[in-house]
Amino acid sequence: MKLFEQSQTLNYSWDVVTTANWIKYPNEVSTHVLSVDILDRSVDAVTGVLRTERLICCKQSAPSILRTIGIPIPEVAWFREVSYLDPKTREYTATSVNLTMRNIMVVKETCVYKEMRERMEEVKVMAKKVEDKFDELKKEVVERPGLLASLSSRGFFFGSGSGSGNGSGNGSDAPSIQVVASSNDETLSQPQPTHSTQSTSMMKPSASTTSFASFFSRSSSSSDLTAEHELEPQSNLTEFIQTAEFHAQVGISSVKRMMEDAAASRFQANAAKGLKGLESVILRVLEEAKQLDG
What are phi and psi of 239, to 5 degrees? Predict the structure, then answer.
């Protein structure tokens, strides 16, 4: 006895795959399948499982040398297929066995079509990795002394003030960016000159934290830097962590949403069309069953 097994991923919805499996033969491309006849089809009244029994006729693909040496091999082969479709668990199992030349060899094939539920587990694993990475970053910020001062020397200032008053008298027209957020404020200020009173707003994800970072891309004097550094270190650190946590949570939510959308788009493509085809088949089976009962 020999056992062959393989697994493939079909980038279509379960409804489309199962419906196509019933109507794919015969066709002008796969000419080896000559005919497919439905011998029996029924729906279990309790479980709702659809059972289908089919008789399939195919061209015999045995090597011609066998006929040359006198082994009687017919030109066609017959196969019996029994399949079960469970709409609740969304699993389709089809088992086929050869009826031709059973005295020489018995070939049994089982195909199982089911949804890839583990995809959602991948989404959860990815989200957990992002959260763990953020925790590592937050821990590193707390444990590394002088990190805030190093960032400040590069133009990043972490304070509760808006920053528009610091350096406003130096005549600089360079842009400044300030993130402003609260549970009741749904606007995010865009880059604007420090001397301008106009602003453009856009929607942003809501957040519960009320103080965030301000970035000033401008030429600051030494007195400006000194004034910024005079803020309480603990206050700076707290607000920096709050800022990082806010943006990390926004990033985690975005990753989850993008992966969920991608999974839905990939594994539920043409779902409506497939479901409609499945329903039509079941309705036809029920109608045939009523006629037989009558």
Answer: -70, -35
